[in-house]
Amino acid sequence: MKTVLTVDDSRTMRDMLLMALKDAGYNVIQAEDGVHGLETLKAHGADVVITDINMPRLDGFGFIEGMRADPEYRGTPVLVLTTESDAAKKQRARDAGATGWIVKPFDPVKLVDAVRRVAA
């Protein structure tokens, strides 16, 4: 069973992701910001990461950069899930090492399809 780490400061969003991904057969671990996300990733590992951009303590860009700085997680797929649709922010996320971009609110079926695609 593949593990997905979700990093989002919204409890509601984390719960929505948990339901969609568990129903699709994924093991889900959660973190509420980028700092906790890096700690959780180091402690548990993950096959795919889904992260928000706008979070306290360490935003999604910093989280992705921190993750990519660790050789163990350089190749782990990262999907950015955010309300942001700005092209410059999408490019910044790609430059940091993001694999894909999903705009909130998300369609659970499309989200699971995106996870399956990058986890393959």
Please specify the SSE layout and strand pairing:
Layout: E1 3-7, H1 11-23, E2 27-31, H2 34-44, E3 48-51, H3 60-68, E4 78-82, H4 87-96, E5 100-103, H5 108-119
Parallel strand pairs: 1-2, 1-3, 3-4, 4-5
Fill in the keyword field for this structure.
five-stranded parallel β-sheet, 5 helices, 5 strands, Rossmann fold, 120 residues, alpha/beta
Account of the 3D structure:
This protein is α/β, with parallel strands linked by helices. The protein has a single domain (3-115), classed as Response regulator (Rossmann fold), CATH 3.40.50.2300. 46% of the residues lie in helices and 19% in strands. It has helices at residues 11-23, 34-44, 60-68, 87-96, 108-119, and strands spanning 3-7, 27-31, 48-51, 78-82, 100-103. Strands 2-1-3-4-5 form a 5-stranded parallel β-sheet, with helices on both faces. Helix 1 (11-23) links the parallel strand 1 (3-7) and strand 2 (27-31). Helix 1 (11-23) packs across helix 5 (108-119) and helix 2 packs parallel to helix 3. The radius of gyration is 13 Å and the shape is globular.
Kindly state the mean pLDDT as a whole number? 95
* Through-space gap between termini: 12 Å
Radius of gyration: 13 Å
Residue ranges: pLDDT <50 for 5 or more in a row?
Answer: none
Give the helices and strands as they follow along the chain. Answer: EHEHEHEHEH
State the CATH class. Alpha Beta
Principal-axis shape equals globular
CATH superfamily: Response regulator
Q: How many strands, what sense, and barrel or not for the largest sheet?
A: 5 strands, parallel
- What is the domain tally? 1
Structural class: alpha/beta
The strand line-up of the biggest sheet is: 2-1-3-4-5
> How many helices in DSSP terms?
5
> Which CATH-level-2 architecture?
3-Layer(aba) Sandwich
What is the count of β-strands?
A: 5
* CATH topology (level 3) name: Rossmann fold
- The proportion of residues forming helix, as a percent range, comes to 40-55%
Beta-strand content: 15-25%
